[in-house]
Design goal:
This protein has about 500 residues and is an alpha/beta fold. The protein is about 35% helix and about 20% strand. β5 (about 135-140), α6 and β6 (about 165) form a beta-alpha-beta unit. Bound molecules: 6-O-phosphono-beta-D-glucopyranose.
């Protein structure tokens, strides 16, 4: 869609004094202001328990934007933005908020812990705001199948599905949207995007950060609920979906849901859970998960999860989908790695010289160093046949000379226009929980891994031939395993 100003409307941020508003929402709203994408008429009204004045909010917004805005803070833009700000303390109640709102429909962002969603939606109902509001909520949408259904029921008692915007900020990332363009805007890839040509799909969200100040929250959550059920499943559904008939919200979301429907609930034996112990990240010592504030010394919450999924569809039957995520891993890196089938005969392996045995890989770098690369083997210059792995590479930074905008800017813009394309539908949420349900019920052991490594080695066994293609460059033994697997398959 073309970005534009929406109709006049107010935006209410419930929980504006909290962390999400400071790090993401205020900077995103400010950047929309900078790009003239906030409605011509419309305020940004904060609502929270703190007894603040509007000047307190302005000062807080200034500091949050200066610290977290991708474009820094420009005084003239901030002056415009600050004029929009208003504040209502929850001590005065939702009725006071209702009285402050304009006549038009409005956006209410519930930037609060998910336990507060249902009571707040009740208050929006009683104050009359719900009738003219669309409501934004953030993951986690429940903590298992039952609670997700209960949350959806409670929301629907007050709001129709069109008035609910469930945010998974991965859908706001440029590189995730580019996956759609890459797949459906280039005929050549669609021809090979299936079980005939692809042997394995790997999707990884690695973080070098630990749980930071969120130990208590994380204890209740763990990596499967925090990342797998939402961010990883969103990327998975875009990688694996059929071409939608249009880029209309329902057409796209129908195809995403079909992927999840074809995906079997995970077999707990195909899941490896891990937990970080003390180690080093970039040469700096870091403590283990059990030593983090708010974490039980005998906690069995996973900070790492790797799983192998099966998608029984015409396109994907038999292709393993390997998902993994972890905190305190060696580097921050979110990638999709598509491993293509190997050549039927290794013509160059018997003729002396050295040989990189390598199947073609397509690597989509969601973040950082956003881009896409395709690897293949080439002949090294010289009299002998020596092969080497090389890459064709597209980088966002070098091609577009800009860094991608923040996910929240795009998502807030789309809510202002009531466009649901990048938001999560109720059936998507529920199916996501059904897929992880077996491992939530029977979590199995948690394997320790040293911070600064790539997670527990038990995860290797999930991959075909114990080989994660995305780990090849980090694992010197990987090339040997590929050679051995190729020799083995030639013998058979
Ligand atoms: C959040 C998780 O949804 O995503 C965090 O709760 C995680 O634990 C974060 O750190 C990762 O987001 P990003 O955009 O940095 O990949």
């Amino acid at each position: 869609m073309t970005l534009s100003r929406s109709d006049p409307q107010d935006i209410v941020v419930v929980g504006i004094t909290g962390d999400l508003a400071a790090r993401k929402l205020l900077p995103a709203l400010y950047n929309l202001e900078a790009e003239n994408l906030l409605p011509e008429r419309g305020r940004v009204i904060g609502y929270a328990t703190d007894p603040w004045t509007v000047d307190d909010l302005r000062e807080h917004a200034r500091q949050s934007i200066a610290a977290h805005s991708r474009t820094g803070l420009d005084e003239a833009v901030f002056a415009r933005f600050a004029r929009r700000l208003d504040y209502v303390s929850s001590a005065d109640g939702m009725e006071a908020l209702a009285a402050r709102l304009g006549e038009e429909s409005c956006v209410v962002y519930l930037a609060v812990p998910s336990s507060a969603f249902i009571p707040l939606v009740g208050q929006l109902d009683r104050s009359g705001i719900a009738k003219r509001a669309v409501v934004i909520i953030e993951k986690p949408f429940g903590h298992n199948v039952e609670s997700a259904r209960a949350l959806n029921d409670a929301l629907h008692a007050v709001l129709s599905e069109e008035r609910i915007f469930r945010i998974d900020h991965y859908m706001g990332k440029e590189t995730v949207q580019n996956l759609l363009v890459f797949r459906f805007g280039n005929a050549v890839f669609e021809r090979v995007w299936n079980r005939d040509c692809i042997t394995q799909v790997e999707i990884g969200v690695a973080e070098s950060l630990g749980v930071e100040q969120r130990g208590a929250f994380y204890e209740e959550t763990g990596a499967i609920r925090d990342i797998v059920q939402n961010h990883l499943f969103q990327v998975l559904s875009i990688v694996a979906m059929e071409p939608p008939v249009s880029f209309d919200a329902e057409a796209l979301r129908n195809e995403k849901v079909k992927v999840l429907t074809a995906c079997h609930p995970v077999d707990p034996a195909q899941v490896v859970r891990g937990q970080y112990t003390a180690g080093e990240i970039d040469g700096v010592p870091v403590r283990g998960y059990r030593e983090e504030p708010g974490v039980a010394p005998d906690s069995t919450t996973e900070t790492y999860a790797a799983l192998r999924l099966r998608i029984d569809s015409w396109r994907w039957a038999g292709v393993p989908f390997l998902l993994r995520t972890g905190k305190r891993l060696r580097a921050r890196e979110t990638r999709v790695t598509i491993a293509f089938k190997d050549v039927p005969l290794h013509l160059f392996s018997g003729s002396g010289g050295t040989h990189a045995v390598h199947s073609n890989h397509l690597v989509i770098r969601i973040q950082p160093d956003e881009g896409i690369s395709f690897s293949f083997i080439a002949k090294q210059p010289g009299p002998e046949i020596r092969t080497q792995k090389v890459h064709m590479d597209f980088g966002y930074g070098s091609s577009f000379k800009v860094s991608p905008p923040e996910a929240y800017e795009r998502l807030l813009h789309d809510v202002l226009h009531r466009d649901h394309t990048l938001f999560i539908r109720e059936d998507e949420v529920e199916r996501g929980w059904e897929i992880v349900d077996p491992v939530i019920r029977q979590p199995g052991p948690v394997h320790p891994y040293v911070s600064g490594n790539w997670g527990p080695s038990q995860a290797n066994a999930l991959a075909a031939g114990a080989h994660w293609h995305s780990m090849e460059d980090d694992d010197p033994a990987a090339a040997d395993r590929v050679v051995a697997a190729a020799a083995e398959s030639a013998r058979r």
